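Let's study a protein:

___
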Amino acid sequence: MEPNDEPPPERCELINPVFTAFGPAMFRRAEADSTPVMVVTLGQKEAALPLRALQREFLIDDASPDGRMLGLIAEALDYVTGLHLGDMLPAEVLTGQASWQPEERHRATAEARLRGQLLARLDPAAMPEAGEISVERMQEDSVLRGRVQSAFEQAASALEVAGAEDIVLLVTAVAEELGFIEALRERLLHPVARLCQRLARMGDGWRGNAERQTTMGQVRKLARTGLQQTAERFAEVDAQTGEVMSTLRNVDSQRSFIRSNRDWLYRSLRAWTPILASWERAGPALDDAAWARLNNTYQFLAPRYMTVQEWALVSGSRRSRRATLTGPVMRW
């Protein structure tokens, strides 16, 4: 077996003495630009050392065990806040599964939608209603249960599998994956939509203050762009998995597609969470705290959702005033 074909280690393990020379170290992303860094204590202060800089300084090749581990650490930091030596790497890095779980109701919503799509395939006239039917009703209503069973049998015939039981297994497998998407729809898409609505309702509360009115307008525009881009991801998953027979015929490729989007959306959720939480906790007053919150929101949104040209102009202008915003390239 070639070295690069070896399965990745399950824990955060590094050999080079530099990673232990300054005492216990933590790996996380830098607050300013999300660069993966190693944080160590030097005297009374913390120092954040970029992992790429450490690699260059100590000649750690990407293909070496430490080089591969540093790559895994950088990837892992998309899913966990921090890592110490000896910590388990997240499941996303090791197996492609998620390191978190949706609630059962999210999986049930996904399964009901898939069953409804099969039912609508049997009776196209029932399509609007089929999307509204819960799994429980499909099981409890004897007439509906019979129709669903017929839909499963037809699907089994079309897919050339042994019987309806195999279709049930396929539906369950896809629903397990789509349950994560439903959870993220609730935890990310809906709160971002609520934030956009709240920003729209704030009106011209700072009328007479040009700087604050301008910032409010920019935050509204950028938040709408963020909502649109996030909604497009969900729409893409819905469209890709909306043709139920194609989905069940290609479960493995659909699983990879769903997981790729699941991970992108989860990284987005982790990035959005502090901003969304600050607005959820806030009252309606347009005071200094609201202004600070609006500024923080702008600093979060601008490098992610401004066009490259706009961001270059804003970033250059703010750097000239010793601002804290950074670079045009941001990671979730």
Q: What stands out?
A: The longest helix spans residues 164-201.
